[in-house]
Amino acid sequence: SIVRQLESLGENEITTKQIGEFVMAALLTLDHVAYVRYASVYRDFREPDDFNEFIDNLRQDNIKPSGQKIV
Fold it and tell me: pLDDT tens digits, residue range 2-52?
């Protein structure tokens, strides 16, 4: 879980950037739609091209929500 990952850092203070990255990683393995929705806000896409580039990179990685590569 994200909480366990944060606790394992052993830090007294954790940045919102660290939390955001853990959330992104967790969503990528669970649900691509949720991942893209979160990323669009977290990464603060300003232009449609920013969004398209993000989606293209996701497709190139060929990762299913289970975290397995698409064959």
Answer: 889 889 999 989 999 899 989 999 998 898 889 888 988 888 888 889 888
DSSP the chain: -HHHHHHHTT-S---HHHHHHHHHHHHHHH-HHHHHHHHHHHTT--SHHHHHHHHHHHHHHTB-TTSPBP-
- State the Cα–Cα distance between residues 6 and 3, nearest whole angstrom: 5
**Which tokens hold the place of 54?**
């993000």
Q: Does the pTM of the predicted model rise above 0.90?
A: no
Phi, psi of 7 (to 5 degrees): -65, -35
